[in-house]
Write a structure and sequence with these properties.
The chain is α/β, with parallel strands linked by helices. The protein has 10 helices and 14 strands.
């Protein structure tokens, strides 16, 4: 094989020993997990908002953002559960550009996977300590979930990963809700196959062991829009789309059907400032259809301290270095409006 070895990767045991979770944070995670689980099990009518930057690039700005989110959580706690979006792996369409803190703990330096594994765990724990919130991350590399399993309260399976068998099998092993995005083709049946697979028990290989999973009853849909054969973005958050998805869940007899709406990506035609309009339309659909109200459990929203995006070397604190995001002021306003309508 044509590669060179750069160095060993620390084991999960080594990294967890270096950055252990305190008893108070374990208690926090347990309480948050129970509250989130109640939403997906239809025992709570609160909405879930997975909200934060496109990619978690720098620890200081990410933690400053989640700390603000923690203060806002106190104002909306009776209606919303806010989950910071701390995505430490960034999927890239052509595998070029910044791939997340796992690859580059410093976006302006060379890749350092070993350092990235330490940095991403440290960032997640610091965010928990400062915000009082447990976060979401994307499962881009299934083998790496062991480094974060004890700190995460939500896991996203991306549009390009949802058809992959290893992602589906690993999702069946985790205890967190697994949000399965529709593929970029927009084929909802592919997403529903993934949800069904993740909810079943499987035997497969993981971390060098043969394992048997229990199945994950919290696997659910995430609608992120689609791209047609001409490369044009097509939304799938409208009233009619949600009715069709509800019918597909019912046809497959999937218990506790659930869906989050990704307000960016193909749904917004990659126009970050369209996210409030999209979220409010979905809230309107929930008011007019009990079926949609039961189905839609919340939103994914891309948001950071400063709106827009920048190149890596511009150094505006809290502005995305990947896809553009809403700024804090408009994000706070949107969260409060969703809370008022919940």
């Amino acid at each position: 094989m044509n590669f060179s070895i750069l160095g060993p990767i620390p084991s999960a045991e080594e990294i967890l020993r270096r950055y252990p979770l305190s008893q108070s944070l374990r208690t926090l995670k347990h309480e948050r997990d129970e509250a989130i689980r109640a939403v997906f099990n239809e025992q709570s009518d609160r909405l879930i908002l997975v909200v934060g930057p496109c990619s978690a690039d720098l620890e200081d700005s990410v933690c400053a953002y989640s700390e603000r989110l923690g203060r806002l959580q106190e104002r909306v706690a009776d209606r919303l559960i806010l989950i910071p979006r701390i995505y430490t792996n960034k999927p890239r369409t052509d595998c070029s550009g910044y791939k997340g803190i796992l690859h580059q703990p410093d976006p302006e330096k060379e890749p350092d996977i070993a350092g990235g594994l330490l940095a991403l765990r440290h960032m997640h724990i610091r965010s928990m300590e400062q915000s009082g919130l447990t976060a979401a991350d994307e499962m881009l590399y299934p083998e790496n979930h062991v480094y974060l399993d004890d700190v995460l309260s939500y896991v996203a399976i991306g549009a390009r990963s949802v058809e992959n068998q290893q992602h589906r099998l690993t999702a069946s092993a985790i205890s967190q809700p697994a949000g399965m995005k529709n593929p970029t083709s927009g084929d909802l049946s592919v997403m529903l196959h993934a949800i069904y697979a993740a909810r079943q028990s499987h035997v497969f290989t993981y971390q060098g062991q043969a394992v048997k999973t229990a199945g994950n009853p919290l696997a659910h849909a995430v609608l992120r829009g689609a791209v047609n054969k001409y490369g044009q973005n097509q939304p799938n958050y409208h009233f009619e789309d949600l009715k069709i998805l509800a019918a597909m869940f019912d046809e497959r007899q999937i218990e506790h059907p659930a869906c989050l709406i990704d307000t960016n990506h193909a749904n917004s035609n990659k126009q970050f400032d369209e996210q409030p309009r999209i979220a409010l339309e979905v809230m309107h659909s929930r008011r007019h259809s009990p079926e949609i109200r039961q189905l839609v459990k919340g939103f994914m929203i891309e948001s950071y301290l400063e709106e827009g995006c920048q190149s890596v070397n511009q150094h505006v604190f809290g502005r995305s270095i990947t896809d553009p995001c809403m700024g804090w002021t408009s994000s706070e306003d949107l969260i409060l409006r969703i809370a008022d309508l919940a």
